[in-house]
Design a protein that fits this description.
The model has no long low-confidence stretch (mean pLDDT about 95). It is globular, with a radius of gyration of 15 Å. It starts with a strand and ends with a strand. With about 170 residues, it is α/β, with parallel strands linked by helices. The protein has a 6-stranded parallel β-sheet. Helix 4 packs across helix 5. Strand 2, helix 3 and strand 3 form a beta-alpha-beta unit. The longest helix is centred in the N-terminal third of the chain and has 19 residues.
Length: about 170
């Protein structure tokens, strides 16, 4: 059986790069993320994106009460995938919280042999989606490319990497 690879670009959106929740680390990985996407496309890998998606009522949600910063509001600049990453027609999974059940079901239905995640934030959405994918696709090789990820802080990034290693997610 031929290898079928999936590259998931997690939440590479304006608000996580240079907007409401942006970090220097996220800005630094942007060129690496763009290069990894180009490599994947050239190799014939499937590339999909997740997009954190909220409304004006975000602050009334459980997540919003714990992180009271409006971000990734549908239709706003900070909600958009960073310029130059997504191509027209690319599959984007809008998600109201950290992990996307729709993404997990999609990955399971396609019988990918390898799934790789890149993006932000390592310690929240990358970690959540990696573990969710492990549940949906327990026999699939799941990996996270550390150089193409950024956490809320460098320390939390490192902790998330260690947590994923403990859960048998390969760190590239």
């Amino acid at each position: 059986m031929a290898e079928q690879k999936l590259l998931i670009v997690v939440d590479m959106q304006g608000d996580f790069i240079d907007g409401a929740l942006g970090t220097e680390e996220a800005k630094k990985i942007l060129p690496k993320v763009a290069e990894r996407i180009r490599e994947a496309r050239k190799a014939g890998e499937t590339v999909v994106f997740t997009r954190d998606t909220h409304t004006e009522q975000y602050l009334q949600t459980r997540e919003g009460k714990n992180l009271p910063i409006l971000h990734c509001l549908r239709g706003e600049r900070g909600w958009e995938i960073a310029e130059g990453l997504a191509d027209a027609g690319d599959r984007i999974f809008d998600k109201p919280t950290f992990g996307s059940v729709e993404l997990g079901a999609y990955a399971a239905s396609k019988n990918f042999t390898h799934i790789e995640l890149i993006g932000v934030c390592t310690d929240i959405c990358v970690l959540s989606n990696a573990l969710l994918l492990k549940a949906f696709c327990p026999e699939t090789k799941i990996a996270v490319r550390e150089s193409c990820c950024a956490g809320v802080t460098k320390e939390r990034h490192a902790c998330a990497i260690e947590a994923m290693k403990a859960c048998q997610i390969e760190i590239l």
